[in-house]
Specification:
The chain has 189 residues and is of the alpha+beta class. It contains five helices and nine strands, in the order βββαβααβαββββα. It has one domain: Glutaredoxin, CATH 3.40.30.10. The protein is globular. The two termini are 32 Å apart. InterPro entries: AhpC (IPR017559), AhpC/TSA (IPR000866), Peroxiredoxin (IPR050217), Peroxiredoxin_AhpC-typ (IPR024706), Peroxiredoxin_C (IPR019479), Thioredoxin-like_sf (IPR036249), Thioredoxin_domain (IPR013766).
Length: 189
């Protein structure tokens, strides 16, 4: 058994990202001070990956309005990210940084590296402004994710972070009632 990544602080990393037509450096320091999503996927030029990244691109404006930055990560190089961006209509929609992790350091830091294949599992991590992981979701390679469900989870994480003593029940949406855990609630829900 391994220790949960929830509430752990992100580990140091250095990467080159393809972002807005340029190669830019990104470190763990860039994730601090705002909410962030680190979105791992196995490889560029594949099948499920572009559907997920396209879905994330479609939700990016909403995430930005919530104060969230998205960082997609694969073990491909930043050159491969650029080539994929230049050749795929789906990937051309991406406006968030696409981090290159060819050495697997970032993938290992988050526990999603498939050592035998040199690829990352489909991992999604929501990180608060202090650099702590608040949501972790890991899928097998054949199972795609939903950006709309991720938006809901981030909304819940942000709500809980700013409303001490309250928690969000299943399927909670902004504006819904929350719970204030207490002895009085035990056995009554």
């Amino acid at each position: 058994m391994t220790q949960s990544i929830i509430n752990s602080t992100i580990k140091p990393f250095k990467a080159t990202a393809y972002h807005n037509g340029e190669f830019v450096p990104v470190t763990e320091q860039d994730l601090l001070g705002k909410w962030s999503v680190v979105f791992f996927y196995p490889a560029d030029f594949t099948f499920v990956c572009p559907t997920e990244l396209g879905d994330m691109a479609d939700h990016y404006a909403k995430l930005q309005s919530m104060g969230v930055e998205v960082y997609s990560v694969s073990t491909d190089t930043h050159f491969t990210h650029k080539a994929w961006h230049d050749t795929s209509d789906t990937i051309k929609k991406i406006n968030f940084p696409m981090l290159a992790d060819p050495t697997g350091v970032i993938s290992r830091n988050f526990g999603v590296m498939i050592e035998e294949e040199g690829l990352a599992l489909r991992g999604t991590f929501v990180i608060n402004p202090e650099g702590q992981v608040k949501v972790a979701e890991i899928h097998d390679l054949g199972i795609g994710r939903s950006a709309s469900e991720l938006v809901r989870k981030i909304q819940a994480a942000q709500y809980v972070a700013t409303h001490d003593g309250e928690v969000c029940p299943a399927k909670w949406q902004p504006g819904d009632e929350t719970l204030a855990p207490s002895l009085d609630l035990v056995g009554k829900i």
